[in-house]
Amino acid sequence: MKFPYGISDFKKIIEQNLFYVDRTDRIPLLEEAGYQLLFLRPRRFGKSLLLNMLSNYYDVANADEFETLFGHLAIGKNPTEKHNQYLVMTWDFSKVDARGTIEEIQGRLYDHVNNSIKASAEKYQLDVVINRGNAVSSFDDFLRASCAKNHKLYLFIDEYDNFANEVMASKVHNNDRYADLVYGEGILKSLFKNVKAAAAGNGLDRVFITGVSPVIMADISSGYNVATNIYRYPRFNDLCGFNEAEIKQALHQVANECQQNGELVDIEAAMKTMRQFYNGYCFNQHDLTSVYNPTLALYFLKSLQEEYRYPDDLLDHNLGMDRDRINYIAQLPNGPALIQRICDDSQQVIVPKLHDRFGVKDMLEQEQEEEALASLLYYLGVLTQDKVVALGKLQLRIPNLVIRSLYVEKLRKLLLPDVQLSDFSQAKEQFFITGDLQPLCEFIQERLNIFSNRDYRWVNEFAIKTAFMMLLFDDRLYIVDSEPELKRQYADFTLIARPDMRKYEMLDHLMEFKFVKLSDVNLSGKEVQHLSEKALQELPQVQAAFTAAFAQLETYQPILFDRYGEDILRLQTTAVVAVEFERLVWWKEKWQN
After folding, report:
1. Residue 452 confidence (pLDDT)
2. According to the model, what pLDDT value does residue 174 have?
3. Count of CA atoms in the C-beta half-sphere (13 A) of 33
4. Which stretches make up the AAA-ATPase-like domain (predicted)?
5. What residues pair up with 453 in beta bridges, in sequence order?
6. List of long-range contacts for 148-151, beta carbons under 8 Å, 24+ apart
7. What is the DSSP string of 542-564?
8. CB of 209 within 8 A of CB of 39?
9. 24 membership: H or E segment, kind and range
């Protein structure tokens, strides 16, 4: 079995017998859904492969290959009447360079569309006039030529918002180029107006559009207001992405191949790792079944199959654009506050509904409510649907640990902009290996003033937990969780060694944080600063905080042993007490095996 990592060519996957998860059973449902469809998913979620599969299915030129390509798949056993009945054309806007002036962008967009038209005209032997200065004219002429031969067109538009998003994000506070794309008679709006007109009985029968968010579609408004939005239909929740059973089956196949080569794979441990790092996406509130990111899943499976080990970095660098999306949100009004809120697992991000009609101008120029910003993060794939709560509102969450790592990274840059990883790496590693938290406590204590002038909700243990989480988060070594549910109880922070990293000398960590106010100890900040370490620990209020912390840790510890295995964990429990933002003191219970 070979994994088609990075391959979106359906014909190549089938002809070379590469790993393929069959979604052709949805073709009849797609036909029933409408003639012009809009399907949104985060980047690298398999949208291009979906379009390529549909293109091969409907292409009249592929009629002789239908049995080869689809005979063994679900649709091959019961095809629809429309298979191999269309001329097909694909515009892939991810290929359009977003750099330069609006004139340069227009030239590249027209070149891409014209090249697609020319290739299709040659493929179907149509006499079409290509107008290099006006791709809309070229498209009209293609439709004229196809109608003359009694053919209808199925148009696929992949990543419809890609280059427009790049223009939008390139300069958050100067979006003139974006306005020239989508407002008034902007290039993109004009192009979609022509697509809309062509679908009104002028030779264009069906359109399937993919993208990341509805923002661009909202901005071109009347230019293209005829698409049926299917991205939140329950029946299409896993149209792109893998489910749990499919991942488990693939892991079993990989394990069998590895065993034949003398290598053993712990399927249960691999499954648990994939679930925590790659699962968790849900695109429909009526069926909250989660799906795996397909690109990340293939990345992991390919490494396990070829190298007999997990990838060194569980975040595929090809998904680094997710980092850019969080950075973009952080530059919007109220963006930093939302990122901080998302990282606080003791709070929930709840919206009355997901927005799907909001434009960029409002996002950039107005202080958006949490609902709009959270909706955009949902479409970008860095928040997902969790559950429906009171009054039908929707609770959102971070999908998995890969995405959580990006939030933590951004939060660290927001709150500690001058701190580099090398500044605290030695202190962090000392804690990982020996359990000695003192160097990291001293490092954080010097920087506690970053919280002292923040709003009221930071005046608690969340501020302290956030500081440690930002610096200790390391998904290269650990399964990192903040507020993990332990049988309806919540620990503040856990670091559980990844199964593939247990060969190294490192501890597992369970941590609890407590916050004591200056008014509780009846001392000033300066007085607390001048206390010795011993005197600070002996304050009755600090002692009480430690007692409460270890009482909680004692209840969490057996649950973790039960979850991960008492014979596997090398668990150290650590309590940290902050006396407001003046001093930190910590205590640990030594790991014993």
Report:
1. 59
2. 57
3. 22
4. 4-220
5. none
6. 151/60, 151/86, 151/87, 151/124, 151/203
7. HHHHHHHHHHHHHHHHHHHHHHH
8. yes
9. none
Q: What whole-number distance in Å separates Cα of residue 330 and Cα of residue 335?
A: 4
What CA–CA distances, in Å, run from 424 to 142, 419, 431, 546?
A: 62, 8, 11, 26
163-167: long-range contacts (C-beta < 8 A, 24 or more apart)?
Answer: 163/93, 163/94, 163/96, 163/97, 163/98, 163/105, 163/109, 164/93, 164/98, 164/188, 164/216, 165/212, 165/213, 165/215, 165/216, 166/98, 167/98, 167/105
Pairwise CA distance, residues 53 & 480, whole Å: 38
Q: Cβ contacts of residue 143 below 8 Å, gap of 6+?
A: 153, 198, 202, 203, 204
pLDDT of res. 139: 96
Find tokens 């997902």 and name the residue.
384
Q: Comparing C-alpha atoms, which of 591, 20, 576 is closest to residue 298? A: 20
Is the CATH code 3.40.50 the one for domain 10-236?
yes
> What distance, in Å, lies between the first and last C-alpha atoms of the chain?
41
**At which residue do the structure tokens 């809120």 appear?**
341
Asked whether the beta carbons of 118 and 128 are under 8 A apart, the reply is yes
What are the C-alpha distances in Å from 145 to residues 13, 141, 192, 558? 33, 6, 20, 73
The reported pLDDT for the residue numbered 218 is 81
Chain CA centroid to CA 155, Å:
28
Burial class (CB in 10 A: 0-12, 13-18, 19+), 525: middle
Residue 483, pLDDT score: 56
Question: From residue 493, how far is each of 436, 481, 496 by CA, in Å?
Answer: 16, 6, 10
Q: At residue 11, what is the residue type?
A: K
CB atoms within 10 A of CB 325: 22
**The two three-digit tokens of residue 247, written as one number:** 């991942």
pTM over 0.85: yes
- Given a contact cutoff of 8 angstroms between Cβ atoms, the answer to whether 1 and 19 are in contact is yes
Which single residue is written with the structure tokens 């370490």? Answer: 533
C-beta of residue 61 within 8 angstroms of C-beta of residue 251: no
Strands 228-229 and 384-388, how do they pair? unpaired
Alpha-carbon span 301 to 312, nearest angstrom: 13
d(CA 489, CA 486): 5
Query: What DSSP state is assigned to residue 100?
Result: S
Mean pLDDT per 10-residue section of the chain, whose length is 593 residues: 92 96 97 96 93 98 96 96 97 90 90 97 95 93 95 96 76 64 83 92 95 85 84 93 95 93 91 92 88 94 93 76 72 79 79 78 61 86 89 90 85 81 92 95 84 53 83 89 62 88 93 92 91 92 95 90 88 94 87 49
Q: What is the CA radius of gyration of the chain?
A: 27
User: Are the C-beta atoms of residues 40 and 213 closer than 8 Å to each other?
Assistant: yes
Name which of 474, 462, 416, 463 is nearest 443 in CA terms: 416
DSSP secondary-structure letter at 400? S
The Cα 179–Cα 359 span in angstroms is 11
**Which part of the chain has CATH 3.40.50?**
10-236
pLDDT at 456: 41
